[in-house]
Amino acid sequence: MKIANCILSIFSLIIISLLLQPGVSHAEQVQAPRNPDSAKECAICHYNWIDTFYIDGRGSDLVEYQTERVAAKPEICFSCHDGSVVDSRARVYNDLRHKINKPPPAHMNIPKIFPLDKDGNMQCSTCHTAHGVASEMGIEKTIFIRASNKDSGMCRMCHVDKDGGPKFGNHPVGPSEMKIPQQLVDNGAVVGEGKNNIICETCHTVHGSPNESFLIESARNSRLCLECHADKNIFTPEGKRNHFHVINAIPGKVKIPSDLIKKGAELGPNGEIICQTCHKIHNNNIESNLLLIKKDEKSSLCLTCHTDKQYLAGTKHNLTHSAPEEKNLEGKTVKEAGICSPCHLPHKEARKAGDGSDFTTQLCLSCHSKGNIGEKVIPADYKHPVDVNPFEIDDPDVLLTTIGVKKEDLQLPLFNKYGAMDINGTVTCATCHDPHRWRADSTEGETRQDVKGDYTTSFLRRPSPVLCNECHNTKFSIANSKHDIQKVAPEEKNYLDQTITESGLCGVCHIIHGGQESYLWARKITTKSGLSVMDLCISCHNDKGMANKKVIKEHSHPVNISPSEKHLSTTLPLFDKNGKVSKEGFMACQTCHDPHRWDPINIIKEEHFKVEGNSQNSFLRLENSPSPKLCENCHRDQAFVEKTDHDLLITAPAEKNIIGQAPAESGTCGVCHLVHNGKNKIKLWSQGFADGSSIMDMMCNSCHSEHGAGKSKIPQIDTHPDNMLITNAGRNVKGTPNYFPIFDKGTGSSTSVGNISCPSCHAVHQWDPRFNVKGKGTNIEGTSNNSFLRHQTYDLLCVDCHGLDALFRFKYYHDPEERVEKTKGLFIPEITW
Amino acid sequence: MRRIIIYNLPMVPRVILAGIFSFIFLILSAIVTDPAFGIRLTYVKHLFDITHDFSQPSDVSVSKDGHIYVVDGVNNVIKVFNQSGKFVYSFGSKGPLNGQFKFPLGIDVSSSGKVYVADSGNHRIQIFGPTGNYLNQIKLHSKIKPADPTDVAANESLNRLYVADNDNHYILVYDLSNMQLLQTLGAPGIEEREFRYPFQLAFDNHKYIYITDVVNTRVQVFNPDGQFVTVIGGWGVEKGQFFRPKGVAVDKNNRVYVSDSYMGVIQVFKNNGEFYSAIGDPEKNSVKKFVTPAGLFIDNNLLFVVEMFADKISVYKIAGDTE
Q1: How far is CA A607 from its chain centroid?
Q2: Rounded to 5 degrees, what are φ and ψ at A285?
Q3: Edge to edge, what strands does the sheet with B77-81 contain?
Q4: pLDDT tens digits for A311-327?
Q5: Lower CB count within 10 Å: N or C terminus of chain B?
Q6: Which residues of chain B neighbour A90 with C-beta distances below 8 Å?
Q7: Residues A301, A293: Cα–Cα separation, whole Å
Q8: The whole model's pTM is what?
Q9: Residues A813, A718 contacting (CB under 8 angstroms)
Q10: In which element (H, E) is residue A486 found?
Q11: Element (DSSP H or E) covering residue B22
């Protein structure tokens, strides 16, 4: 019996244990549930209906006890819509969507069929139910929403205030003549039943939009609006600029008034002007026609933001005064459409403007051109350049500056190709002119047609020359100089017959509209030098001109030559035949002279027009004394003379050249060479001539003579016997190490057969042939290795003829003690080859 | 005395009484051996989280060399991290072209390093080299609904590629060497070998495939021949039951980890389907809660958990079990 009881107990345990064991091995296959469990099908969403919670009234080892209804909470929805049943990750859970977990706005009347949760908040279940709506056709549309949303009907049940179209201050809804673009539909827009039926979901998608107000596309960049209102876009599909009000651009000087913002004006994310800056498309109780943010009474909306344009009213640009009958492209006169309308319509061209990349200028020319209302004032052919970036004009390698102002300091506006102010833009008419203001420093206008503008009015942004100074400030050191006509010739007139009083400082020489081709020159050009830029200087600097005392005559530095052809390079400006700066151009007066600046180092503001010039000023681009920087810019090899014994600034500062200039005045170079109006053609020699057997020797001897600056270095014998038919073949290439020039006896020009003269052996600009350096400013006794010799003595041409005897022969030509043969007759040395 | 009483009772009452005692004995045994009131915990130690501008990541896989591949599906990229969780590179963008994705969901990195991505929205499996270089693709076709591949599992030793077609409620089996379809496992339904929204896949050491069957709230197991083996779990919120099973992974001991995204727990089963434990929080000595845990991956003793709504991958060391 005991055994029987034990067996019974064990059997019971085994049975019960088997009943409680949930799993089996791989080999023992377990059957899947046979029938759908209706309780499960409900509790699959109604989590709190699971038996553990609902029947047992408890939680489990895994989760808390759940009593709250969570069937339409976002977490429940996401538990299937996470891709494991339906993939709504991107559409519903990733982006902006209709608000949940928040109460509806206080003013909104939520119909009772849309239940809020126990806290009065909207939930998924407010709009959605899994139990279907009987009235809707098509299960896909209906099964999860509480009411038919045909033509956004469900949206309108709550959002009553957004319905009704413009009459109720809202964007039109319902059938439209305007085609709803396929692009918008492709992006998720829903079109109502019928053709082009605008409904809420045409612009808004309640789930899955990354945009504000869950719009199909963002309106913060105007893109949504432009999908349908493409004709309002400032760019055509081909990228051409329409002459409309800008959108999606950050306003330059315009500030959107705060009261406009308070009324609902929107801006882009970076403060850009967008469609909704001017248009309020929902709940607009201001203006129901165009849904404007403010009523526009004859341009009053425009002037709300563009306050600086109001001064137009009292000018000739107000067509009320100048062309009241003129109609814009919309067929309206100024009286009908306001003072802005003749030139600007927000979404249409007001005037037919020409093609061109410079939109701003084209807009001006639409009136100021032949056959149009502004034809009396037409910019002439040669005018200040437009459509150029002023900061890209100057070549940093060339010593010529057009623009002096730094980009960040420029006060005048530049404009981009869209007509918007842009510091990286270009010069346009509107850079200098403010078409909305007649006089820069005043709000005073001028409506009389017979009154012509001058340099203080004419819609200029600044009076001239202040205006010019904004960009060309480096040119303003011309004031009080010899080129300041106000000082030196106030009665002189430009070719428009204007005195400086009438033309302004700059207008004496430059006429911005209608000047002559080269540099908009304002004076009568009388010569044709072949280099137009030079003719500008000659227009004054001629025998009959107002600068007749400073006329360049013969024996002057050559101009109209190409330094590059002479193997010279320079950073001084060279000019082409038309006057434009060109690296391969020609020398002109302006190569060495900056006509706007008397002193290349110092800006002199005081009167200095009476000062006689020297090599330190005289409108030179670089100073030429005490260091010969100007000459050196081309003649680098010759500049080694500086601070050698041949630099008279060092060795003979009191000496004077033939026009009476001391070295400090003439500069190191000017001691020996006169750049303008010299007395000698050869080398533009500026000293006298002494005795010598050739012109070259005579020049050298002018100093190396008894009364000359080089009197301590007078060679007692200095000539090679003449007529030896010495040739320098193979040594006649300048710049090569063995260069040994021979000069024509009379002209000093280089030749290949002739006589030896001083500069045959001596390079007068370089102390030591081994070192291409300037001197040290101290007097050094020479040796046969330096002493301005072209080569060290053992490498002179003498060696070619005299071999190792050359040194002796060298002494022979400079030491009278070694030249006794001279008295006995001509000595002919033996030639050793 | 008690012995006398029992011995003196008639046979039928004696059997009933024995059964009652046995039942009480089993209940008491369960209570005594379970520290969390009847549930074993497998503790995990948190190592680090991976966050890298994810938007609802869904799956994770780790290559032999330790690179962590994450499906950042809403962003249409696969992001790759090193063993420390530091971002290394990413590949993919939105689109239909080779190497582009449309809301991918699942991923697997084979033992040779090839990366298989279930490119759900493009109805295809894309295959990449270890650095994300596009190699090949399998376009999935279906006569019923457009294919909706939600996960992929490649087993090179088995030469098989398994694909879960979520909307069509079956598993596709491909020959890995020529990408030819060999077999379709399952059909819509609730019976064994039937699915309602199969979602994620994992192999065990025996090359058995484990498939989360979301709406049937279970995991189904098939052997390499495609024969149904067993189910794991069932409907409910008790231990061993699921409300929203999503991810599945198998450790080296062939223990099966299943995530439940709504309950926020990960349960561990023996491969015969028997509940083993729940992932536990050692600090709280309780069942660990995750935020919408979805894709799982086990690399040796490391557990990678995709926490979808938290936009992160949390990485744990599997530390051991309670008794």
Answers
A1: 36
A2: -105, 20
A3: B59-62, B68-72, B77-81, B87-91
A4: 999 999 999 999 999 99
A5: N
A6: 74, 103
A7: 9
A8: 0.61
A9: yes
A10: helix A485-488
A11: helix B11-33
